[in-house]
Design a protein that fits this description.
Elements (H helix, E strand, L loop, with lengths): L12 H9 L13 H4 L11 H9 L3 H6 L11 H5 L6 H10 L8 H13 L7 H18 L17 E3 L4 H5 L5 H9 L4 E2 L10 H5 L2 H19 L3 E3 L3
Helix pairs in contact: 7-12
The chain binds iron/sulfur cluster (2 copies).
C-alpha cells in the first residue's frame, strides 16, 4: 500500500518563493474544482493544465514544474483566475516560473521579439522611419483611391492630438493595407488621433518573456514620449 503524503513535511520552496512576490496569490485555497482548466486554452498541452499546476505546486513538485515547457504555452489571458472561485492568481504564478529561467534560455521567438522591441521600438524590428514612411504612403493611397476618404488624416507625432494610438507592428511590416479599416472608422467618427514614433508598437513580448526590466523600459519610453513630447491626454492600446 502506498505511503500517505504528510502535508506538514512537504518542501514547497517554489510556492514560498512565488508567495514572497505575490503574497495574495492564495494557492492554499485551491478546491481542485477544475473550473480554471475548463476554460484554459493551454489545457492538455504538454500533459499539464492550471489545476494540475496548482496541485503540483502545493505538493512541492518544483522540479517537475520547472522542467515542463507548459509555462510557455500559457497565453497569460487570465481566464483561469477570473473563473476561479478562490481567485487564485495562476498567471502571476506562471510569470514567476518563467522569470526563474536564465534569460538566454527562454524561447528564442519571444526573446528575439522582446530584444527587437527594446532596440528598435517594435517586435518586428521595423525602424520608426520605416513605420512613418509606410503609414503615410498607405494613407495617401487611400485618399487617392477610396471615394469618401479624400480628406483622411493620418499623422505620426502630431503634438496635442486628443489621443495616441499604438499599432501592432505586424501590419505595417507584412500587410500595410490592413491598417486602413481602423483609420476609416476613426475618420468617420471624427476622432482626433496620432501615432507615436517612439515605441509605436502595441505588442510587448517582454511581458510574455517575464522580463520586468525590458517590459518596463518599453512602457516608460512610450509614456515619456506621449507625456513630454506629444502632450496627449489619452492613449488607446490596440493590442
Ligand atoms: S478554479 Fe481555482 S479552486 Fe478550482 S481548481 Fe482551479 S485554481 Fe483550484
Ligand atoms: S492565463 Fe494561462 S493558465 Fe490561465 S487560462 Fe490563460 S492560458 Fe490558461
Amino acid at each position: 500500500m502506498a505511503e500517505a503524503i504528510k502535508i506538514d513535511t512537504l518542501d514547497v520552496e517554489l510556492k514560498e518563493a512565488v508567495l514572497d512576490k505575490v503574497p495574495d496569490a492564495n494557492f492554499d485555497l485551491c478546491l481542485t474544482c477544475g473550473t480554471c482548466t475548463g476554460g484554459c486554452p493551454a489545457s492538455e498541452q504538454f500533459g499539464m493544465d492550471p489545476r494540475k499546476l496548482i496541485r503540483m505546486l502545493n505538493f512541492g513538485m518544483d522540479e517537475e514544474i520547472l522542467k515542463s515547457d507548459w509555462k510557455w504555452v500559457c497565453s497569460m489571458c487570465g481566464r483561469c483566475q477570473l473563473a476561479c472561485p478562490m481567485n487564485i492568481n495562476i498567471p502571476k504564478l506562471i510569470y514567476n516560473i518563467r522569470a526563474r529561467m536564465v534569460r538566454e534560455k527562454r524561447p528564442k521567438g519571444i526573446l528575439g521579439s522582446c530584444d527587437q522591441h527594446i532596440r528598435t521600438g517594435s517586435a518586428m524590428g521595423a525602424a520608426k522611419e520605416d513605420f512613418e514612411f509606410t503609414v503615410l504612403d498607405v494613407a495617401e493611397e487611400i485618399r487617392e483611391d477610396h471615394p469618401g476618404f479624400e480628406d483622411l488624416e493620418v499623422t505620426v507625432d502630431r503634438v496635442g492630438a486628443q489621443m495616441v494610438l499604438n499599432q501592432n507592428s505586424r501590419e505595417p511590416v507584412t500587410e500595410p493595407e490592413e491598417m486602413g479599416p481602423l483609420w476609416k472608422i476613426l475618420h468617420l467618427v471624427g476622432a482626433d488621433w496620432t501615432y507615436p514614433s517612439v515605441m509605436w508598437a502595441g505588442e510587448n513580448y517582454c511581458m510574455f518573456l517575464a522580463d520586468d526590466e525590458g517590459w518596463r523600459y518599453i512602457i516608460e519610453e512610450f509614456v515619456l514620449h506621449v507625456d513630454n513630447n506629444l502632450k496627449s491626454p489619452l492613449v488607446v492600446n490596440t493590442e
